[in-house]
From TrEMBL:
Cross-referenced Gene3D superfamilies: 1.10.238.260, 3.30.160.270, Aldolase class I (3.20.20.70)
Protein name listed in UniProt: Citramalate synthase
CDD domains hit by this protein: DRE_TIM_LeuA3
Ranges for domain Pyruvate carboxyltransferase: 5-266
Keywords noted in UniProt: Acyltransferase, Amino-acid biosynthesis, Branched-chain amino acid biosynthesis, Isoleucine biosynthesis, Transferase
Organism (species): Paenibacillus phyllosphaerae
Amino acid sequence: MAQEISIFDTTLRDGTQGEGISLSAEDKLKIAQKLDALGVHYIEGGNPGSNSKDIEFFERAKQLRLQAKLTAFGSTRRKHSVAEHDTSLLRIVESGVPAATLVGKSWDFHVHTALQTTLEENLAMIYDSFAFLKRNDVEAIFDAEHFFDGYKHNPEYALSVLLKAQEAGADWLVLCDTNGGTLPTEIHEIVSRVREELIVPLGIHTHNDCELAVANTLAAVQAGARQVQGTINGYGERCGNANLCSIIPNLQLKMNYACLSADQLQSLTTTARYISEIANAHMPVGQPYVGNAAFAHKGGIHVSAIMKDSKTYEHVRPELVGNKQRILVSELAGQSNIISKAQELGLDINTNNDKTKKIMEQIKELEHQGYQYEGADASLELLLRDAFGEHKAIFTLESFKMIMEKAAGQMNAEAIVKVNVDGETVYTAAEGNGPVNALDNALRKALVQFYPKINAIHLTDYKVRVIDEKDATAAKVRVLMESTDFESSWSTVGVSSNVIEASWEALVDSFRYALLNMSKVETAHDVPRVRLGLVNH
């Protein structure tokens, strides 16, 4: 039977110390529920007395009925004081949480320099604080800050810190690589030594300053640690914390430890992406296991092989972590990529080999011009369907005109659009807060009378990339748009030396794709009428 590993998530506390990460109380409540559904065992929510946001979070979290143990964070009592009078400790107990993490110094250098007290007083601070928590029936977790640096400098004192917390009744002793500078071999050796001296189970808390946080965590588990602390997507101070999105599947799928149920593990990708959206933090496409490109294949040789057996170029089945295989089509792709993508779309390519070669050449030429289809799945699908005669033009552009005016200190844009919809010419005009927004409003105005469901679509991302910097303001640009209909999302691309024309191409593809898949879009009266908010583009 696989040995169980306790998963301690500190996204809501340590993760928020990362640059650019700021969560409201409402955000933290949403993330806590998502983490609970994932199946983590502890959710560290912050310090219930440090600020009004965390106070609100802990008060409202009482109504969530979490299966995970909501955990408060604090530090050992102040020097030369009494635990029963320590405000931070009192607020932890008053919050009603079942578990609490206290950070304490385990490096003598920090005791003298940061705390400016004696080694003996630091031990007393640790003992008094954990004894106080246990007297109040709180599960007590000791985060031994800078433990590995402390152990390498003064192993006797670092160990005495752990023994003192154990004596006071601490339930977990967590060894922290706070500066993130320890190597996996050192982690394994030190954890192995320390484990022999203690009765209380060990945990591991690592930072990623040497890009080793995940490796260090796995090394600690191999040496006997039974709790792993980390954050979703590796959020955290400086270079971040250990990434639970890599740690959990590595432990479970590679090392045969039990962390989550199989069903819970399958929600890992959606959890990671959900939290990145709430945190408004870009999620790297190449992030292992949960990234959009984690199981993406571009090289023709690779695609040819995985079509025979996915194990040829995938170390695990992506479905195990809730991700999916993606076949990318680009100038590097071979015919296998086109065949695989066409089969995915349900296109009959068995008798269309000439068409396959022709579309391959077309894609290579378009990518030479600056188009990029590996990041524009919807534009690629439209291109393939057009090539295989599976899609008709729902509407065509006859002309558009832009009028820009700056008056009274404000920029105003007006778009005049002439389109043909099923043989009928429609002429509309609309204003917007930028040229692309005006074009969107005008095009939407023309189409909505024929396709009311078009109002369900809105933009989620808009990027402009200069392709040839040396051409300065005359350079070609590539516009990537991501859109959604509240049920699914898709990406489109446009390229031109004129940013408005490139944006128009991506915008038209977005609407064409939505209309192609209109059965997925709810009726206009069932969803809010949201416009593509492209400010000043």
